[in-house]
Amino acid sequence: MITTGFIIASAIKVIVVVVAVLTGCAYATWLERKLVGHIQHRIGPNLAGPFGLLQPIADAIKLAFKEDIVPERAERVTYALAPIVAFIPAMLSFAVIPFGDTITIMGQQIDMVISDLNIGILYIFAITSLGVYGIVLAGWSSGSKYSLLGGIRSSAQMISYEIAYGLSIIGVLIIAQTLSMKELVAQQANFFDWFIFRQPLGFVLFVICAIAETNRSPFDMPEAESELVGGYHTEYSSLRFAMFFIGEYANMITVAAVVTTIFLGGWQGPLLPPVVWFCIKVFLFMAFYVWIRGTLPRVRYDQLMNLGWKVLFPLALLNVVVTALIYRL
Amino acid sequence: MDQYLSVLIFLLVGVGIVLFTFFIARLIRPHNPYKEKNQTYECAEAPVGNSWVKFNNHFYIFALIFVVFDVEAVFLFPWAVAFGQLGLFALVEMIIFIAILVFGLYYAWKKGVLKWV
User: Fold this and answer.
1) How many CA atoms lie less than 13 Å away from A210 in the CB half-sphere?
2) Would you state the pLDDT for residue A207?
3) Closest CA in chain B for residue A95
4) HSE-CB of A14 using CA atoms within 13 angstroms
5) Which of A50, A100, A151, B74 is least buried, going by the fewest C-beta atoms within 10 A?
6) Which of A118, A306, A276, A138 has the alpha carbon at shortest distance from A212?
7) In this complex, do B7 and A238 lie within 8 Å of one another by their Cβ atoms?
């Protein structure tokens, strides 16, 4: 039944989540710069506010005041739309992530999830795959050689890892027998029931593919600065550039939240409230992301394709077959 | 259905935020284009030739293989979820299905399609 109360409750949840994710994105940039700084024996941002905490706000204001340049060779409409197409899916996949237990306010049961779709995992895969359109369209419509090559590289990379990405989760589905994120969290109530212990290979494959899917170092081919200038966003400036940037970080946060939910027990944890546990796990995974970036060099493009097709894909298939056999016999 | 309504609300809020930020930014940012500024970036030189250069057609072949194996993944999802209710027959069947695809991958591999040049 769709009631006014339901709509108001979801609207409030949506706004809270959107604000949280956007703030998360802003502070993910701060975390990245600070952490990579310390990994490289630098200080990182430290002038805007205490510990440089106001840096993301300063960056946002600076970008908003910049001129929006449309190069003369660009396809104007597609060029204008591409950042939005890249940004919206990154946000949307957060709709099915449960970030807390069901609570009761004024006699109403409220799930701490925007939408408990019974096909949650499929929804996430479907929505995150849409992100590639923003990148391809941006690369194509900029009318610049660097953008075009960056966009094409990126799409080839994303489709190469998409398959192993999808297959790595099948093992979890065989055990869990559900596609609903809420159900998945419920099945990981005990620490040793976390799917990271029951599906270790699936976890490793999923994390590697997720890093490649979000175009992060060491798989940040599409924007390899030394070869392609800025990759697909070479020609973008001002807020349109910021949209790509926020989209990338929103994707990272989404991946962190998905890994938390599927493999790390979601919001489950002792003593502290569920939402706090959820945030701690997401934060730790984001720090892991930055740690990888600060530690590993970028792979070559042929190595990247080889890894995706010749290593990860067969391993993911093997994982499916082995899991199925173990749980059947 | 009501769960999809929440997703729709999310989509509308997301689009709304983007449009709102673009609107605000349009009010406060400068606008002063001229010919040199609008030139396509090519390391400060005047751009040479068309921007839509020919690229390696290997990308296309990868896209084709992707379609084949991604459809496979689509078949695996419902099978995995219903795994508990299906009998041994479904397991054997799916292993045969995967074996055929592994053979396809092996074929592509031996043909040198997966080799990046």
Assistant:
1) 26
2) 92
3) B7
4) 25
5) A50
6) A306
7) no
Confidence (pLDDT) at A206 = 92
Q: Which domain holds residue B93?
A: 2-30+32-111
- pTM beyond 0.90: the answer is no
CATH code of the domain covering residue B80:
1.20.58
Q: What angle is formed at CA A63 by the lines to CA A158 and CA A256, rounded to 5 degrees?
A: 40
Cα–Cα distance measured from residue A136 to residue A125, given in angstroms and rounded to the nearest whole number: 18
Q: Write out chain A residues lying below 8 Å of B23, CB-based.
A: none
% of chain A beyond a pLDDT of 70: 96
A229 closest CB neighbour out of B41, B70, B105: B41
B1 touching chain A per CB within 8 A = yes
Taking the CA of residue A97 and the nearest CA in chain B, the distance in Å comes to 12
Q: Please answer whether residues A249 and A27 qualify as being in contact, where contact means their C-beta atoms are separated by less than 8 angstroms.
A: no
Q: Is B70 on the interface with A (CB under 8 A)?
A: yes
pLDDT tens digits along A291-318:
998 888 888 888 888 888 888 988 998 9
pLDDT at residue A329 tops 60: yes
Q: How far is CA A204 from the centre of its chain?
A: 16
Is any Cβ of chain A less than 8 angstroms from the Cβ of B47? yes
Kindly report the backbone phi and psi dihedral angles of residue B49, in degrees, each rounded to the nearest multiple of 5, phi listed first: 70, -170
Interface mutation vs chain B, best among A118, A162, A243, A320, most B CBs within 10 Å: A320
For residue B53, being part of any structural domain is answered with yes
Beta bridge partners of A104: A109
pLDDT value at position A226?
65
Cα distances (Å, whole numbers) of residue B102 to A158, B55, B96, B108, B115? 21, 29, 10, 10, 17
Smallest CA–CA distance from B53 into chain A, residue: A145
Under 8 Å between Cβ of A154 and A134? no
Average pLDDT over residues A213-238: 76
pLDDT surpassing 80 at residue A289: yes
Q: Do A163 and B73 touch (CB under 8 A)?
A: yes
User: Is B79 within the bounds of a domain?
Assistant: yes
| Helix, coil or strand: residue B32 | coil
Mean pLDDT (chain B) is 82
Query: At residue A105, does pLDDT exceed 80?
Result: no
Q: Is residue B116 part of a domain?
A: no
The answer to whether residue A88 neighbours chain B at the CB level (below 8 Å) is yes
Q: How far apart are CA A201 and CA B113, in angstroms?
A: 27
For chain B, say whether A322 makes contact (Cβ under 8 Å).
no
Q: Element (H or E) spanning A256, and its range?
A: helix A238-262
